[in-house]
Specification:
heterodimer, A: mainly beta, Immunoglobulin-like, four-stranded mixed beta sheet, 8 strands, B: about 5% helix, elongated
Chain lengths: ~120, ~325
């Protein structure tokens, strides 16, 4: 009986895991300044957050930098849950660094999906 | 027989909680009797340009204890859209300079009716000094609102605009046909996260509004004009009211892109204070069915959360359960 209870608890614990990697949801993040793609930007991901964390370029769980000629960053294998994505890049048309953040809530029904997400940034 | 008993109970209740302290817009320190259920349906409306703004709400009240009343109010209105208006905040580029600002205020944007959410309220009477045809009562109240409304003004309002909580004190004095009540309290609103379209017409920009905290101070006067003398519980009670609704609130804070604080330039989002004056009339039919009418005008400054005059109508009835 104890073993069955333990198994149920373990299964519940595993199935309740969220706000982390190890899942099947893939995010393609597109940093954009007024709709213009920002190539080679870096995306910082904070797990379990819905607000911009303090010092977001140091206080993060995951950091992905797009290739210099790529307008997106691939964030792979997320579980369902709450995330905050903060992007830093450079807009060569105005010769200024640009940055911005957005919260992301991956619902249980979306846990195996591929999601495209625009990250609006500003100078 | 059962109907007669209900009438007698409600009559005794209204004699205890006299009609002239059943203010149309403010709660008195007195309570709903134990195990009684009250239903209140009310509407508030005003014109904003060519648009009529309306709020419809249903309130359920219950007397848990002789001294404790709880309420829940569900409301719907066409005050706001599903997201912030496009002109709430914007920015322009001038060379390498970027100028952020709150946008101009557009009057009368038509919105469909939306369900705002539910607000909860509890009131506990802790002082009761009762005498012949007079009483002095004090109560503490607290409330919490679970709303999802893209409110775009600094002033918080737990009924239909902002999620959050609040509390305060109510002091009511009644003598003969006259009643006066002071309600003072605070509102601590919670932020609302939404988005507005990018100024260049591209995708939404994440936007968060932190509303100002507020202090409320409402003073209500009531006078029973009819009947001059109680003869039976079928007499309709007519009361006149004059209520002063005051509020002082802090400036709102708008944050975009998660980190950029937008300078607030519109008075809608600035700190403010005002006192409205609200004359009203009330009929209580057969000691239970209550109908309130009142109108709100600005007296000192004005609220930017609504236009004037604000017309309010309410109908309320108690159901007395046997326990």
């Amino acid at each position: 009986m104890k073993n069955i209870l333990s198994c149920i608890l373990i299964i519940l614990f595993i199935s309740c895991k969220k706000n982390n990697t190890g899942g099947e949801c893939n995010i393609t993040a597109f940093p954009q300044h007024h709709g213009k793609p920002i190539k080679g930007a870096t995306v910082y991901v904070k797990f379990g957050a819905q607000d911009l964390p303090a010092d977001p370029t140091n206080n993060y769980n995951l950091k992905i930098t797009a290739l210099p000629d790529e307008d997106h960053a691939n964030i792979k294998s997320l579980r369902y849950g709450k995330y905050y994505l903060y992007s830093v890049g450079f807009d060569s048309s105005i010769m200024l660094p640009v940055m911005g953040g957005i919260s992301l809530n991956i619902k249980w029904a979306e846990r195996k999906k591929a999601i495209d997400l625009n990250i609006p940034v500003t100078e | 027989m059962k109907r007669c008993a209900c009438l007698i109970i409600s009559f005794l209740y209204l004699r205890n909680l006299s009609g002239q302290e059943l203010f149309p817009l403010n709660e008195p320190a007195s309570n709903v009797p134990k195990n009684a259920i009250g239903l209140r349906l009310f509407n508030q409306s005003y014109g904003e340009g060519k648009t009529i703004r309306g709020l419809d709400a249903l309130r359920v009240m219950y007397g848990v204890l002789p001294r404790l009343t709880i309420m829940a109010t569900a409301s719907m209105s066409n005050h706001h859209g599903s997201d912030f208006p496009a002109n709430l905040a914007t920015h322009t580029h001038n060379g390498t300079q970027t100028v952020y600002s709150t946008g101009g205020y557009v009057v009368g944007i038509p919105y469909p009716y939306r369900f705002n959410g539910i607000s909860f309220y509890a009131k506990y009477r802790f002082v009761s000094v009762d005498g012949q045809n007079k009483h002095f009562r004090m109560a503490a109240y607290g409330g919490y609102s679970y709303l999802n409304v893209a409110h775009d003004e600094a002033e918080p309002n737990l009924l239909d605009d902002t999620k959050g909580y609040g509390g305060g004190l109510i002091t009511t004095y009644l003598k003969n046909k006259f009643a006066v009540s002071l309600t003072s309290g605070v509102i601590i609103p919670q932020n609302h996260k939404g988005s507005i379209p990018d100024p260049a017409g591209t995708g939404p920009v994440p936007t968060e509004v932190k509303y100002g905290r507020a202090v409320e101070y409402n003073l209500s006067f009531g006078y029973l004009v009819f009947p001059r003398k109680y003869e039976n519980y079928n007499q309709t009670n007519w009361s006149l009211y004059l209520e002063f609704m005051g509020k002082t609130y802090e400036k709102a804070k708008i944050t975009q892109f998660g980190f950029k604080d937008i300078p607030v330039s519109t008075p809608l989002l600035q700190q403010g204070n005002y006192i409205d004056v609200c004359p009203g009339i009330q009929a209580i039919i057969r000691s239970n069915l209550r109908i309130d009418l009142s109108v709100k005008f600005p007296m000192i400054n004005k609220s930017y959360a609504h236009f004037y005059p604000v017309y309010s109508i309410a109908i309320q009835r108690y159901f007395f359960t046997k326990k």
